[in-house]
Write a structure and sequence with these properties.
five-stranded mixed sheet; 3 domains; seven-stranded mixed sheet; Aldehyde Oxidoreductase, domain 4; alpha+beta
Length: 760
C-alpha cells in the first residue's frame, strides 16, 4: 500500500484508448452484431397494465411468409417460487424472473412481454405480431405507492415470494417487503430537541436515460452444446447466470461476449431480451437478433423507483441532532425487489446520530419491475433527510455546512446496518465546501423582476458493492502488455485499470492494451455496478502486475546469473546490485523472453473489500420565475471524495454526469400514466431529460481522502454524485420562494401550484 502522493501514472490523465473508435463510429455495440443468416426478433407486449392472460393464438402469425418461430411462456421451463440469488446478492423468485421475460398467467404492466417472433426482417416480425391474438381479462391497475397500499387495492400477487419474510400486518396487501434499522431511543432523543422538523415528498418514476437501447444476438450451436450471446450489458457474467437460471441450462454451455455499452447507470444489469433471443435461436437454428426501440426501453426495462419519503429530525439549540426517523416507501414495479435496504442504510450515512429509526417498504405496482439507477434508493431518502437538515439550520440560524460538520460521520462512526466506518471523507468534503469560492460569494442577482434567486446546499453518500475480479496480463515481445479484464467498461475503466497496472512496473499505461474478454476467456468478474469496476479490477490489475514483476525479476536473475535478491525492476527498467552495474529496459527484456525461458503471463484475482464509500456535496444557485414556476440553474459546484482519483478526467466526468442526471430527476423527468396504467410519454420527445440548454457547466471538485483499503487509496466514484442534487435544488427553491415543493419533479406546473400568493 502506498501513500496518497508520489505516483508516476496514477492521478495522471492519459488518453482514453477506446476514445477514437467511439467518436468515429468504429466501436461495435450490441446492435452492430450482424452474423451470417441472422433473423430478427420482435416482442409482443401487453396493452394492459394488469390483466389475466386467457389465451394466446399464434396460428395466423406462424403461417406468415418469412416467419421462422414464435415463443411464449410455454416455451420456458415452468419455474417454482424458489429463491433466486443474482450475482450481486439480490434475492428474487425464479418464477418472477422468468415471468418478467415472458408473462405466464398475468401481465402486470403495459408493455409486459407476452410472445416473441423471429422472422427474415424486423418488418415481417412486426407484421406477425399484429396477427397474434391474445384474450385478456382486464383488471384494475395501480401505478403509485399510495393507491397500491390502500385496503381496497387489487392484489398483484396472492402469495408473494420475497427475499425475507413479511410481517403479518402486511398480509393481503401489496406491501411485499419491509426492512428496519434502529438504534437508541427516538422518543427520548426528540424530547431533548430544541427544534423538530418533518418533511414529506412524493417522487415519480424516472429512467436511467442511457443513449443505447438494449440489443442482443443469440446463436445456438447445431448440437445444442453451446449458446453464444452478444449483448451490451454491465455484467456479462450476470447475463450468463440469469439466462442459465431461466432456460435451465448449465453456465458451462453459455458464452456471453460483451460489446461496447452506450450507457447503463444500473439499468443494464437484468437480462430482459437475451433469454428470448436464445429461445428463438434454439427453435430456428439461426442467429436471432433483438433490438429494442426507445419506447420499449422506457416502458419495458427497469426504471428506478418512485415513491414516498418522510423524515423527522430533532436537534438541540447548538445544532446537535438528538434523534431522527426516516420512512421510505419505494415502488418495486411488477415484482418484489426495490432497493429499500440501500435507501435505509444510507439515509443518515453522512451523520453520527445516536437515536434513529429507519423503515423501508417494498411495494408492488403495475409498472415495469424496477432496476438500479446510480445509488438506488439513496436519492429518495436523502431528499427527505437533507431538506430537513436545511430547515433545522434555518430555524437555529446555524450555517448549513457548520451544522453538518457538527454531526459529521467520521472514522469509528457506526452506520445504520451496524458496520463501523474506517477512514472516510465526510469531514474533508464539508471543509472543501466551506473553503470554496462559490460558497463564499454572495448569491447572483436575478435576471429580471419576475425571478427570485436561491442557493441550496446538500450532502450525499454512496457505498461500494466491490466484488470479485480477475485480470490476466501477457508480456508481448514488442515491449507492450496485453491486459485482459472481465469488467465491462462503462466510464473509462480500461485506462484507469491500465494505470493501476502500469504504476507497479513503472511503464507507460498507453502501452498497456486492454481487452474486455468474454465469459469463456477470463475468470469470473462481478458486474460493473455499485461504483466498483475501477476499484476492484484496478486492485486485481495491481496484483497481476506484482505477479509479472516477480516473474521478470526471476527471469533477469537467470539471464544475468545473479541472485534474485539483487534484482530490482522499477520505473520500466531492471538493475542488479550484484557485480558490475547491469540494467535492461522492459522493452529490451520483452524481446528476449521467448529465447530465455518462454513467455511471461501474470494474473490477479481479488474479492475486493475495504472501500468505505464516497461522500458528496452540492452548492447550487438558481432562479425561479414566480410568474410561471420555471427554474433556471445558474451556477453549480459538485464535490466528491474519490479517495485517490486514478484518472481525474474520468472522475470529473462521473461527477458531472451524475449531477446532470440528478438535475433532470429534480426538475424535469417523470413517467406519466393514464388512468388505465399506460405510460403516455414513452418517447424522448415527451420524456423530458435535460439538455445542454437546461444545465450550466458543472464545476467538479475532487476531494481526496485517502482510502487505506485500496492499493492506491481509491474509492468508487460512480454513484454518490446523483444523491445531493435532489435536496440541493429543493433547498435552493425554498431559499428563493420560501416554499417547499413536496412533489418531484419540481417542474413549472408543480412549482406553480405551491408558489405563495399566486392566483392559481
Amino acid at each position: 500500500m502506498k501513500n496518497n502522493s508520489g505516483f508516476k501514472y496514477v492521478g495522471k490523465r492519459p488518453l482514453r484508448p477506446d476514445g477514437v473508435e467511439k467518436v468515429t463510429g468504429k466501436a461495435l455495440y450490441g446492435a452492430d452484431v450482424n452474423l451470417p443468416s441472422t433473423i430478427y426478433g420482435k416482442i409482443l407486449r401487453s396493452p394492459h397494465a394488469h390483466a389475466r392472460i386467457l389465451s394466446i393464438d399464434t396460428d395466423k402469425a406462424i403461417k406468415l411468409p418469412g416467419v421462422h418461430a414464435i415463443v411464449t411462456s410455454n416455451d420456458l421451463a415452468k419455474k417454482t417460487d424458489q429463491i433466486y440469488k443474482d450475482l450481486e446478492g439480490t434475492l428474487s423468485s425464479l418464477r418472477y424472473l422468468s415471468n418478467n421475460v415472458l408473462a405466464e398467467d398475468k401481465v402486470l404492466y403495459a408493455g409486459h412481454a407476452v410472445a416473441a417472433v423471429a422472422a427474415n426482417s424486423p418488418y415481417v416480425a412486426l407484421e406477425a405480431l399484429s396477427l397474434i391474438t391474445v384474450e385478456y381479462e382486464v383488471l384494475t391497475a395501480v401505478t403509485d405507492v399510495q393507491s397500491s397500499m390502500s385496503h381496497d387495492a387489487p392484489l398483484l400477487h396472492d402469495n408473494p415470494t420475497t427475499g425475507s419474510p413479511r410481517h403479518k400486518k402486511f398480509e393481503n396487501t401489496n406491501v411485499v417487503g419491509h426492512c428496519e434499522f434502529s438504534r437508541g431511543d427516538v422518543e427520548i432523543g426528540l424530547s431533548k430537541a430544541e427544534v423538530v422538523v418533518e418533511t414529506e415528498y412524493k417522487t415519480n418514476t424516472v429512467h436511467q436515460g442511457y443513449i443505447e437501447p438494449q440489443s442482443a444476438t443469440a446463436l445456438w450451436s447445431r448440437d445444442d452444446r453451446q449458446l453464444k450471446i452478444w449483448c451490451s450489458n454491465q455484467g456479462h457474467f450476470s447475463v450468463r447466470h440469469e439466462v442459465s437460471a431461466i432456460l435451465d441450462i448449465p453456465v458451462s454451455q453459455i458464452k456471453v461476449i460483451p460489446m461496447e455499452i452506450g450507457g447503463g447507470f444500473g439499468g443494464k444489469i437484468t437480462a430482459h431480451i437475451e433469454p428470448i433471443a436464445a429461445l428463438l435461436s434454439r427453435k430456428t437454428g439461426r442467429p436471432v437478433k433483438i433490438s429494442l426501440d426507445r419506447s420499449e426501453v422506457l416502458q419495458c426495462t427497469g426504471p428506478t423507483s418512485g415513491g414516498l419519503v418522510k423524515a423527522k429530525i430533532g436537534a438541540s439549540k447548538d445544532g446537535k441532532i438528538t434523534a431522527a426517523t426516516c420512512d421510505i416507501y419505494l415502488e418495486a414495479g411488477a415484482y418484489p425487489g426495490s432497493f429499500i435496504e440501500n435507501g435505509c442504510n444510507t439515509a443518515f450515512a453522512p451523520y453520527d446520530i445516536s437515536n434513529f429509526n429507519i423503515s423501508g417498504y417494498d411495494i408492488v405496482t403495475n409498472k415495469p419491475k424496477t432496476g438500479a439507477y446510480r445509488a438506488p434508493g439513496t436519492p429518495n431518502s436523502a431528499l427527505a433527510v437533507e431538506t430537513a437538515i436545511d430547515e433545522i439550520s434555518r430555524k437555529l440560524n446555524i450555517d448549513p455546512v457548520d451544522l453538518r460538520l457538527k454531526n459529521a460521520a467520521q472514522k469509528g462512526t457506526r452506520k445504520a446496518d451496524g458496520t463501523i466506518y474506517p477512514d472516510i471523507g465526510m469531514v474533508q468534503t464539508a471543509q472543501s465546501v466551506l473553503d470554496h469560492p462559490h460558497y463564499l460569494q454572495p448569491k447572483p442577482k436575478p435576471s429580471n423582476k419576475s425571478m427570485k434567486v436561491g442557493r441550496g446546499i446538500a450532502f450525499g453518500y454512496s457505498g461500494n458493492i466491490n466484488g470479485a475480479s480477475t485480470v490476466i496480463a501477457n508480456v508481448v515481445p514488442d515491449g507492450t502488455i496485453s491486459l485482459i479484464i472481465g469488467s465491462v467498461d462503462i466510464g473509462g475503466t480500461r485506462i484507469s485499470i491500465a494505470q493501476q497496472f502500469a504504476e507497479v512496473l513503472g511503464i507507460n499505461p498507453e502501452i498497456v492494451h486492454v481487452t474486455v474478454a468474454d465469459t469463456d476467456s477470463i475468470g469470473y468478474t462481478s458486474a460493473s455496478v455499485g461504483s466498483s469496476a475501477s476499484h476492484k479490477s484496478g486492485w486485481a490489475a495491481y496484483l497481476c502486475a506484482l505477479d509479472i514483476k516477480n516473474q521478470l525479476e526471476t527471469r533477469i536473475s537467470t539471464i544475468w546469473d545473479v541472485s534474485k535478491a539483487t534484482v530490482v525492476f522499477e520505473n520500466g527498467n531492471a538493475t542488479s546490485t550484484s557485480g558490475p552495474e547491469q540494467d535492461i529496459s522492459f522493452k529490451e527484456l520483452s524481446s528476449m523472453l521467448e529465447d530465455t525461458g518462454g513467455p511471461i503471463t501474470g494474473r490477479g484475482n481479488v474479492t475486493a473489500a475495504g472501500s468505505a464509500g464516497s461522500f458528496s456535496a452540492n452548492i447550487v444557485d438558481l432562479e425561479v420565475d414566480i410568474e410561471t414556476g420555471k427554474v433556471n440553474v445558474i451556477k453549480y459546484t459538485a464535490f466528491q471524495d474519490a479517495g485517490k482519483a486514478i484518472h481525474p478526467s474520468y472522475v470529473e466526468g462521473q461527477i458531472q454526469g451524475g449531477t446532470v442526471q440528478g438535475i433532470g430527476w429534480a426538475l424535469h423527468e417523470e413517467y406519466v400514466f393514464d388512468n388505465q396504467g399506460k405510460m403516455t410519454n414513452a418517447s424522448l420527445l415527451d420524456y423530458r431529460m435535460p439538455t445542454a440548454w437546461d444545465v450550466p457547466m458543472i464545476d467538479a471538485q475532487i476531494v481526496e481522502s485517502y482510502n487505506p483499503g485500496h492499493p492506491y487509496g481509491a474509492r468508487g466514484v460512480g454513484e454518490a454524485s446523483i444523491v445531493p442534487p435532489l435536496p440541493a435544488i429543493s433547498n435552493a427553491i425554498n431559499d428563493a420562494i420560501d416554499c417547499r415543493i413536496p412533489i418531484l419533479p419540481m417542474s413549472p406546473t408543480n412549482i406553480y401550484k405551491f408558489i405563495p400568493n399566486s392566483d392559481h
